[in-house]
Amino acid sequence: MAFTKATKQVAYARIGGFGPMGSGKTTLMALLALHLSKTYHGGAPVAFLDTEKGSDFVEPYFGAEGVELLVDKTRAFVDLRDAHAQALRSGACVLVTDSLTHFWQELLRTVKGEARRFNIKMIGEAKERWAEFTENYDRAPIHYLVAGRLGYDWENVDIEDEDGKITSELIKGGSKMKAEGDFSYEPDLVLELSSADDPDAADYKKLKKGNRIKKLASSQIHIANVKKCRVRALNGQMFSWPDKGSYKPGDYAKVGDCFKPYFDFLNIGGEHLAFDASRNSQQLMADAGKRDFFQQQRRREIACEEIKGSLSCVWSAATGKDAAVKTEVINALFGTHSWTAVEKMNPDVLEDGARVCVRMKNLAISQMPQDREALLRLVKQAQGEIRDEQENPLGDLGVTAHEAATASEQLPF
Questions:
Q1: Residue that wins the pLDDT comparison between 208 and 138
Q2: Which residue has the higher pLDDT, 56 or 151?
Q3: Which of 77, 392, 393, 405 could bridge 387 with an S-S bond, Cβ 3.0-4.6 Å?
Q4: Domain ranges of the chain
Q5: 239: exposed, middle or buried (Cβ count in 10 Å: 0-12, 13-18, 19+)
Q6: Tens digit of each residue's pLDDT (9 = 90 or more) over 362-373
Q7: Three-class SS state of 142
Q8: What's the rounded Cα separation, in Å, for the pair 128 and 107?
Q9: Strand pairing partners for 239?
C-alpha cells in the first residue's frame, strides 16, 4: 500500500434514476445517453440492457440523432454482470440498464431455488453475487446509467397509546431504488423521478350550468429531484421538462445541460480508476503452514461439526444415555469432558478425532455397543483402522467410568 498525490480519476458517468410508473425513467436515461454520446464521443453507439421493452419506444430518438442503439433484452443476472464487457466489445460508449429491479429479483429467485422461504444464508449468497455486478459497475470504462423501480425504506417504530401501552408498527420511510439495498451508494448521481399535470398546458372550458369549470385536456411534466450528487452544485436541485408529442433532433441537450456541473467535473477521455481491484486480503486466508489464525479457525469449525454430526447420527438424543455415550467418546478421544476445551484444540487433533468419529458411525451401524467396554473397544477399533490407513495415530486417551459419570459440562448436541 502506498499513498500518492491525488489526481482526478473519474472519467465515466455513474447515474441512477428511480421512480413510479410513468415518471419518465426510460426516457430520461435515453436522453442522457444521447447527450453523452453526441457531446463527448462523436455519436458513438449506445448499448441498452432492456428488461421491459423500453428500448423500442426510445429507438426513434436515437434514429433521429444518427446514434446506433444496441439492444439486449434479458432479465438474467449473469447478463447484467457481464453487460459492460459486451457493450465495450460492441464499441458502445454508454450502457443503459432498465430496469435494474428485474435483475435483482431474478437473482433472488435463482438463489432461493425450490426452497419455500429465504434464510440468512441465501440472502448472503445473493449479496455476494450482486457484488460481482457492482464491482464491474464501479470499474468499467464506460458511462453506466441504470433505472429502477420505486421502493421504500421500512422501519419498526415503537408507538405509545393513551394507556401507555407500547406497540411496534412498520412505518414507510424514505424512497429509494427497488434493488439490492446498498446499490444506491454506487452511482455518483441519483435522481428520483415523478410526474404531474402541467398547469400551463391545460385547456379549460366553462360549463353553462353552474359556471363549473371542466378540464378538457392536459399534458404532463416530468420532474427529476437530485437525491444525491457527488458534485455539490447539484445536490437538492430539481428539474422539470414538459411532455412532448414527438422527439426533435437536439432535444437531448435541454435535458443534458441541466446536469452540466456533473458532466464538466468528469475527466472524460482520461483515466478511470474507482479502486485497485488487484489488491485484496487473500493473504489473510493463505495457508502458511496451517498456522494462519483464520485458516486454523475454519478447520476447527469444520472438524467440530463433523464430530457432532457423526456422533449424533448414532446417538441422537441430547440428554440421557445418548448424551452420556457421546461424553464418553469425547473423553476417550480428547482426554476431556469439556466441549469448550475441545473446540480450542489444535486443528490436526480435531481432524484426526473427526475421522475416528466418522469411522465409529459406520461401525456402530452394524455393531452397536451395548455397554461401556464395548463402546471403548469400538473407539479403539476405529482408531486402529485409521492407524492402518494413515501414519498419524491419535494415541490412547482412555478415561475411567467415574470420570465420565462426573463430567461437569453438558455437550451442546
A1: 138
A2: 56
A3: 393
A4: 14-158+166-206+214-265, 288-405
A5: middle
A6: 888 777 888 888
A7: coil
A8: 11
A9: 224
Which residue shows C-alpha cell 436515461? 29
CA pair distance 376, 398, nearest whole angstrom:
8
DSSP 366-400: HS---SHHHHHHHHHHHHHHHHHH-S---------
Mean pLDDT value across residues 259-264:
94
Task: List the beta bridge partners of residue 63.
Answer: none
Q: What is the mean pLDDT of residues 263-267?
A: 92
One-letter amino acid identity for 86?
A: Q
The secondary structure of 28-76 as a DSSP string is HHHHHHHHHHHHHSTT--EEEEESSSHHHHHHHHHHHHT--EEEEE---
Residues 184 and 16: beta-carbon distance below 8 Å: yes
Per-residue pLDDT at 152: 52
Taken in order 389, 393, 394, 397, is the CA torsion positive or negative?
A: positive
Amino acid at 276: D
Is the CB of residue 14 less than 8 Å from the CB of residue 229? no
The confidence score (pLDDT) of residue 399 equals 41
**Mean per-residue pLDDT, 41-68:** 94
Task: Report the C-alpha gap between 102 and 52 in whole angstroms.
Answer: 9
Residue 388: Cβ-neighbour burial (10 angstroms; 0-12, 13-18, 19+): exposed
C-alpha distances (whole Å) from 114 to each of 77, 109, 122, 142 are 18, 9, 12, 37
Model confidence pLDDT, tens digit, residues 88-116: 999 999 999 988 888 988 988 898 888 87
- In angstroms, the CA 33 to CA 61 distance is 11
pTM of the model: 0.62
CATH top class, domain 14-158+166-206+214-265: alpha beta
Q: What is the pLDDT of residue 395?
A: 39
Burial 185-202, CB ≥16 within 10 A → b, else e: ebbbbbbbbbbeebeeee
All three cell numbers of 161, joined, read: 397509546
Report the range of poorest mean pLDDT among 65-74, 95-104, 133-142, 390-399.
Answer: 390-399
The mean pLDDT of 246-262, rounded to a whole number, is 93
Gap between the Cα atoms of 226 and 15, Å rounded = 11
